[in-house]
Amino acid sequence: MARNGKPRRAPRSNGKTNGHAKAAHWVGRKLKRKEDPRLIQGITHYTDDLKLPRMLYCTLVRSPYAHAEIRGIRTDAARAVSGVAGVFTAEDTASLGMVPCAIQMPDLKVPKHPVLATDRVRYVGEPVAAVVADDLYAARDAAELVEVDYEPLPVVTDMQKALSNDTPYVHDEFRSNKAFTHTLKNGDIAAAFKKADRVVKQRMLNQRLAPIAMETRAVLAEYLPGEHRLTVWSSTQIPHLLRTQVSVMLGLPETAVRVIAPEVGGGFGSKLNVYAEEGLIPWLAMKLGRPVKWSETRRENFTATIHGRDTINDVELALKKDGTVLGLRVRILADLGAYHQLLTPLIPQLTALMLAGCYKFPAIDIEIQGVFTNKMSTDAYRGAGRPEATYIVERIMDIAAHELGMDSAQFRLKNFPQPKEFPFTTITGLTYDSAKYQESLKRALQLAGYDTLRRRQKNGWKQGKYYGVGVSTYVEICAIGPSAATPAGGWESGTVRVEPTGKVTVLTGASPHGQGQETTFAQLIADELGIDPEDVSVVHGDTMAVPYGIGTFGSRATAVGGTAAYLATQKLKAKMATLAAHLLGSTPGDITIGRGHLTAKRNKKSISFGELVMAAYTARNIPPGFEPGMEATHFFEPSNFTFPFGAHIASVEVDAETGEVKVDKYVAVDDCGNVINPLLVDGQIQGGIAQGIGQAMWEELIYNEEGQLVTGSLMEYALPKAHFLPEFTLDRTVTPSPVNPMGVKGVGEAGTIASTPCMVNAVCDALSPLGIRHIEMPLKPERVWRAIIQVQAAPKEPEPAIVPALAAAAARKPAQKTARRRV
Amino acid sequence: MIPANFDYESPRTLSEALELLASREDAKILAGGHSLLPAMKLRLAQPALLVDIGRIGGLSYVRESGEHIRIGAMTTHAEIASSKVLQRFSPLLPQAACQIGDMQVRNCGTIGGSLAQAHPAADYPAVVLALDAEIVVASRTGEREIPAREFFTGMFSTELHPHEIITEIRVPRTDDQGIAYKKHHHPASGYAVVGVAVRLKLSVGKIDTVAIGITGVGQNAYRATAVENALRGKPVAAIREATAHVAKNVEVLSDNYASSDYRQHLAAVLTRRALEQAAGGRAK
Ligand SMILES: Cc1cc2nc3c(=O)[nH]c(=O)nc-3n(C[C@H](O)[C@H](O)[C@H](O)COP(=O)(O)OP(=O)(O)OC[C@H]3O[C@@H](n4cnc5c(N)ncnc54)[C@H](O)[C@@H]3O)c2cc1C
Questions:
Q1: Collapsing DSSP states into helix, strand and coil, what is residue A585?
Q2: Pick the CATH number of A12-30+491-636 from 3.30.1360.70, 3.20.20.150, 3.30.365.10, 3.40.50.1000
Q3: Is residue B73 part of a domain?
Q4: How far apart are CA A212 and CA A297, in angstroms?
Q5: Nearest CA in chain A to B265
Q6: pLDDT tens-digit profile of A284-307?
């Protein structure tokens, strides 16, 4: 596969390492992940694999109602089951703090969010009672015997109804279901729409999704009263933030709490949170004086782990007839669910920030309303606000291109900022660090054989075959982020310690959950110290071992956490040079590090890496004032976000008779700055594309009017499977970020962000000759079929069948709307 | 995902299994477990006794015997999919079997279990109907054969009595006919949103024999007799019009994935495509 990304030196990418530092750089190589052998062999430990002596099992009784008053709870029968250690309700847990929300906004309504429901339940799946027993069988049997007397209340699941006058309130105390209004306005929007030759309007929905990490959530807690130490094992993306929150919820000194994130089997944002169970299980362990474990079932994962997306978007784009964009107006309703989880109200704000996409909008006008409904909370799900923004921008741009009769790629090229305009300040107030949008799009067009695809499409239409080509160009906000712009610190910590034997331990606060930092950070540090990545072991996920850190999310681990480790290594290198100069009779500036040695350039004397490190520990011959040992820590505060970007192209065929869509080609050209390990970058992109196509095509959480989740299992909720998808064609451009010394940007969410609009654009493009303009996600065959039969049933305008958009642009008459339907 | 308490027995002979089955009111056969165990984990099924028939020898086979192929009830979907005998003499079953669920499901699930389960969207029911198969069942009092057309009586319900065990399925040889199985997979479960099994024979350009089994559309799989009647003695050109009757007298299912209108439309399209494929094959 052709690559534009050139590593600093041509890599020998056999991934073989043999203890000796090679001359070649490790950064840029396709090293296989250090993590994989233990994961693939199943010889490692997730939280649910852990068993402690005298451990109890917890199961939760959850609300079957979306909205109800709790009149009473009877637990006697459950308590009587043999093996049951206790049954607990909100009465018992009154001393526990609330489930936290980290977001502060003026006028934000923050409801009380107890760990167990007190007098009311507000969504299906809300925990009501905890049953703890010697084994899971007894716990489950007993849970069935807990009798909760519910008085069902009227339910509100529809955001628009929730904002109407005649509606039940999710939280009576607010007398409204509106949690907040967030606006972002810049430029002269009125003027933009006034001077527009054309205004393109579209309502588009971004459906609710389930993150579905392979490993569901799990919490194990043990309290040792003698040591006054609570240890909490949790499948989390944020062990340190969790430690702080657990200590607050339980009223313990933070020093008494240790959080360990063992292997974490994916999160996609869903474990960037603090959940009720993470307060409750430790509390139970303290109360009962025995370790307690709770593992989520997949059904619980659907109802009680955060959801993503769920917005209604009304979009208006003002344009000149030559295709220049003038202004964008967006009105968003964001479904928050019943309570705020950690970041719930933040996600729509990220959408607002990213609504400029990769275009030069002179004016923007955004208003977002956050709405309470009787559903599970929404929060960060892979992309967290940016996929929503990109969907809006890339869909409206595509619809506009069709309306103007312009080629959708050319239309985008026309509105990109030029490379020389970077750093580029967007109309939403962000400063994009570096980009060449033109280059990635042109490369994608070339790889896709764009002109051939367009030709096939035109010929196909003549034969009643519907081929579509979808283009989407995206920019995302990563490396989150400068602390001033984040709720709980946007920095990251890194410690690099060379042990006396010369082996290196790296401690990172950016606790991974499948991203592969153990490999990439080792590559990075190995290069800096002139050693082999095999000799670098990366430790994470234990608050007692690792200095305070923020976590892995928002495509930040490498750009922020990696930079912290990199800068700590620079401190260490300075220290090594000082000692080497002392031992070699030289000056620190004269010392070079590499190939396992430190060498004085002038006198050509050298000392092996191992000998030097040992000398730092034996400390018998050190310069005056030199601190023994070989360890350095850096807390890195980034000056800006980074802004990866790229261009994706999908080619599809729609079966107009059944509405089925076949993806026959998918091309992605992404730019995440410098690449440390191409294998891992490709892996992130591939998974991301699959997940984004999943949203476009198959995935949707549907709550019915009673607030029941009707697609709450993997037999109804369709995740993308490998055989649904073609082999992706991947390529890269490399535009280093100036924000960090490594020039890296982040890649964890890119695929998801770009692929969703790309697919919808492709399908709508295929059906454009029929006069179809927009179809809501997921593009289930029935939806597509209905869109087709509806336009077929609608009275036809006399217009050429093949390229109506072109004809419309020529005539530029609004009457054409009648033949176009939204479905 | 923790089932309620149950007892477990794994008899070595069919007669022992039949005794055990009759010994308790809420005893249930366990075959491949790929319908029963998920239901038990969700506590939707809570049998008191599981009679595992997986250790009874001689219930898993595919054999040619005269005009029929005999298939043991414990034969897995994967074994059916790869059976040379079936591929040669009655390929409709393997064509459907290889489209069931995923590899794990096909390696565990059995034809007897699938037919006994009578899931409204399972694949085999459409196929055994189209093949006019016979389902052989045993009880303590003896053996009986149930024609496929009498077997399915509703959603998850069959002619099977509680103490009977399916032992064998007999399907006819179809090597002189065209066959096709068309399926629209549910993207989550893999089950058939619509599954259409057809068997067809042409004679001097006219449709001579035609059998159409439909699954996923109604409460239980059925024969699309209205379509069959409209086609018998007609040329292939009659197919398009005839398939409009695919759900005649059927109360069509509706769910989040496919409304009854769409299901019915899909059934008509897939039936047409299946018939056209079968007619285009060696039937001519
Ligand atoms: C993820 C998944 C996807 C699936 N996708 C499909 C699909 O696409 N198409 C499809 O058709 N099926 C599908 N299935 C169902 C699968 O084919 C099952 O294997 C089948 O329905 C049941 O067969 P079993 O041998 O597993 O039976 P079991 O689960 O063991 O038993 C099912 C029922 O039949 C009874 N039973 C079993 N054997 C006998 C017998 N010999 N005599 C009398 N009663 C008996 C049992 O008591 C029980 O009530 C899927 C299942 C799963 C889990």
A1: coil
A2: 3.30.365.10
A3: yes
A4: 12
A5: A658
A6: 999 999 999 999 999 999 999 999
